Amino acid sequence: MAPRRPAELYRAPFPLYTVRLHPRRPLAITAGGGGAAKTGIRNGVHFLRLEQIGGQLSASLLHCHDTETRATMTMALAGDVIAAGQDNSCHILRFSLQEPEGPGTAGKDGGGAQGVRRRRGPGGAAPGPTQGRAHEVRVESLQRVRTDFSPDALQKAVRFSADGALLATGGADGFLRLWEFPSMKKTLEFRAHDGEIEDIALGPDNKQVVTAGRDFQCCVWQQDQLVTGLRWHENLPGIPDKAYRYQACRFGAVEGSAGALRLYTVQVPHKRERRPPPCYLTKWDGKSFLPLLTRPCGSEVVSCLSISDSGTFLGLGTVTGSVAIHIAFSLQRLYYVKEAHGIVVTDVAFVPESRPGRELLGGHEAALLSVAVDSRCKVHLLPTRRSLPVWLLLLLCAGLIVATILLLQLAFPGFL
Length: 416
What we know:
Elements: E1 7-11, E2 16-21, E3 27-33, E4 43-53, E5 56-66, E6 72-78, E7 81-86, E8 89-98, E9 116-117, E10 119-120, E11 130-131, E12 136-146, E13 155-160, E14 166-171, E15 175-180, E16 186-191, E17 197-202, E18 209-213, E19 218-222, E20 225-229, E21 244-253, E22 261-269, E23 280-285, E24 291-296, E25 302-307, E26 313-318, E27 323-327, E28 333-337, E29 345-350, H1 355-361, E30 366-372, E31 376-382, H2 390-411
Antiparallel strand pairs: 1-31, 2-3, 3-4, 4-5, 5-10, 6-7, 7-8, 8-12, 9-11, 13-14, 14-15, 15-16, 17-18, 18-19, 19-20, 21-22, 22-23, 23-24, 25-26, 26-27, 27-28, 29-30, 30-31
């Protein structure tokens, strides 16, 4: 049975480019905007409270943080700190949730959006602002550093390390820059690619960094030394070296195997063709960086990748607006909605698997949020896969053994 159309969780007054979920709070942060062009489209970071209402996941707007003439294109989250990629710079923001002073209190930052909750339910209908004693969000700008120096400067990737002590940025100039956090002291800077950096993945021990570039390369670095260049198609004959480029890279855990690590990459065709060739997903050993499995993931060009906390699921968005969820073990597709958005999906993110996150799932196995240039944030729910309990499997095995013995006894009297 085909999955139901995804519910519209939130609709912003500007194009959305990125979304992140707080690991310990029922909070989603999404951002975007119209940039510096004088079109009347604002730029901002929106904070959404997530909650279960009537068995459905709903979102309430808590706060709008105005980013003036800068649209946030990329974003990383470490606790209550946001690293927002805006134009050629990375802006560091700290937010805090506070109890409101009174019902209906309106904040000054964001045009009076604080204290006013605009709830959007699963059907996409917004009945209008409702006054509620929701937490107020206070946003503080800590500092700004320039992260790209190309003529058409744009920060395209930003990533916090697992311990929050390191920040990695990459952009149109092809340079990888590492920053100590929170001092934002630059510790490393070198040209990683001849062209734009599309994505960055930081290893859990902060020793290795993986970068995906538009120069057909995906590289593993230790400091500024190249450890290895990935070759996803070396066991796939008939694919030329420059027919595909790397679009995304992410490290992920291995479910049920503590300490194990996998790297996942997405390869997309370099050129558009009348009959588009498939995109590919590749799973790599996270230590040896040898390819373990490669599978096609459809002919729609993949635009973004996310991995669930446990490493069980991969979420994909495409340039044609479709969204898919794959299982990491076999890379097979479990969920797919064609053109869930009307235009390119710019980011996807799984609901965290922490206790607050599990409370939001409402009996589903996983939930994926997607945002797009169509200004919409949608939620994709993966139903819990049915499985037989262990005791029932053991009982069935015992029954089969007994039945086999009885049949043998009937066929060969004196067998026992």
